[in-house]
Amino acid sequence: MMNPEKIPLWRNAKFINIFLQGILIIFLVLLLAILTNNLSNNFQQLGLTFGFNFILDPDLNSRFDIGDSPIPYQATDPYSRALLVGLLNSLRVMISGIILAFILGVIIGLGRLSNNWLIRKISTFYVEIIRNTPLLLQLFFWYSVVFLKLPKIDKPLIFFDSVFLSNQGLYLPWPMGNLQTFLAALFLIIIPIFGVIIWKKNDQNIIQQGINNKLYLILLIILIILVIFLIIWGLDWQIPQYERQLKTIQGGLTLSPEFATLLVGLTVYTAAFIAEVIRAGIQSVSQGQWEAAKSLGLSSGLIMRFVIFPQALRVIIPPLTSEFLNLAKNSSLGSAVAYRDIYAVASTISNQTGKSLEMLLIVMITYLTINLIISTGMNWLNRLVQIKEN
Amino acid sequence: MFNLSKLTTKLPSLILTTSLLILPLTACNGGKTTNGNTTGENSQTTNSRLEIVKQRGNLICGVNGEVPGFSFVDEKGQYSGLDVDVCRAIAAALFGDATKVEYRKLSAQERFSAVQSGEVDVLSRNTTWTLSRDTANGMEFAPTVFYDGQGLMVTKASGVSNIEGLAGKSICVLAGTTTEQNLADQMRKRGVKNYNPVVSDDVDTLYAAYQEGRCEGVTADRSQLVARRSILPKPDDHVILDVVLSKEPLGPAVKNGDSAWFDAVKWITFALFEGEELGITSQNVDKFETSEDPNVRRFLGLDDKLGEGMGLPNNFATSIIKQVGNYGEIYDRNIGKPLGLERGPNKLWTDGGLLYSPPFR
User: Fold this and answer.
1) Could you report the predicted ipTM of this complex, rounded to two decimals?
2) Contact (CB<8Å) A65/B113
3) What's the pTM value of the predicted model, to 2 decimals?
């Protein structure tokens, strides 16, 4: 009889594990070695060198202009500056896109659960159309059918003598960068914090006593009026001027049609997915929770706020994270509609310098970093809303 | 790896299957690289792109496809233009059949990596020969087939009459081109501030944006402006300003470090010039078969063995002229007649132009 202690080596689970994983590692290393060797051979053959020094070299000018730049930039700046402009342009569209897509997504998601037949149907229609057509196609649609078809610059649409809209951009009043604006902006940050604190207090009050405290509501209204006053008179607004002879608009904030295209395209597209995430999240909360809350005599708005939404949030956040990540990655499609994001700037640089591999690596690392930051933030949020058991 | 190790405790066979799946994958990859890309390892003569192309039996040619006169796809899917005819000439020389070309439409951004990675054999895509492209980008430029210069086109409605008039306005420009840099250079030189470049990846998108009035002006090679203006809805509404911003020598290019293939492409291009200089056209080439002129006889491969030394058929020039024509015919067919562009510097050296072929001997 065989000794049960002595398992042959080829049937020992532990050995098999280590052995097979060892083989896998060898294969991966081999694959990597073949690819690296191939790459270095090709580089050698083409007479190319690998290195990142050219990016920071102040003697190497980028030698191209970027129209849509949030920071001062000119063609005599080094490549690093051009990349920074691209990065800021990417972040600009990613951050505003995430905020807007979330807001729109929540509205549409709730719309799909609405009792109103029309709202429900419109929301479903939106989600199905947007979700089932490619983003690139939608971007081309927004660019060539919507934004390029706006009136030309010599006949712009003018609203209240201060907002101009043409197919060269949206021109908005924008606060001047001076002390008055700075102080007002400071207050505009502080006041909402008070607002949130009061709001939270009121929530607690509702939970404990079941009614809104009038005092809190009055305080909130005062704060809102204060904010409106600050926005209108506190900030030092600069109003864009239309120069009829030169046919140009100077001053204020200009949002290029390319930025608008990408922002609207990404927002509309991602919102459709977010809407589904929100809907699924809310539907995942069992019907019994609604009934229980109703039996306590809560109104449907309060049920949503205090019972359903906190529970739905646990289901919503993980898929929401991946939608945010998708939006961030999809922003690289901007180069298709002439938006100068990091990807577009990097490919121009790689085209000029021949450093395609280096630029590819930089772009990859940039997107990786941005996405890791987003998911770290969302994971933190996720931990915050999870059920805590002590 | 973490999940994998968890799995293996339950299903060791799964990882075995994975390994077995990866095994042929790596083998396949390794085989491909040694055949196609790492020509540097093996001797140049046996593994030149020239041999690869000949064995494959057709030429893969990178073109633009969006510039009438240079390369343009018609409604039947047929390519035509000067750049396309260069591709056809190479195919005629290699295989005696000008139709053995597979065209790849490449954007300005894609084109160099397409050559470097061997996706296309030759790039014939109105590409400007510059120092950095010749060196840092790992390209090798065959003779220039079109001497061009950068121009500016504006709408008549904009009222702009010179470069300075574009201050504070938008200019459409193509991404990844020399044009993008020249524009920045010229604006700096002339002190024009606040102009707004709208940089597009795609020629069609670029001109669509210009046409809609997104930009007051568009800048590109002058030939391209003339060509694109001809297909705008109202060509007369657009003016090409009387300025030349740069030198733009356009010609075919191949990957660096493959002299056999480069030589072949270079001399095939020269053959187009030489054919015109000798007065040999696609119409009269047969009559020259009996010519006594030693230059003609060598050129047509009747005497000597000039082709063989390069790995081409001796009569490669005859095939080119018969099927594609000489440079003058190609120019008239694609650019002179349809676009009405004067030959200017693109005349033969004997007519005061810049086209000059070293001797075929």
Assistant:
1) 0.80
2) no
3) 0.83
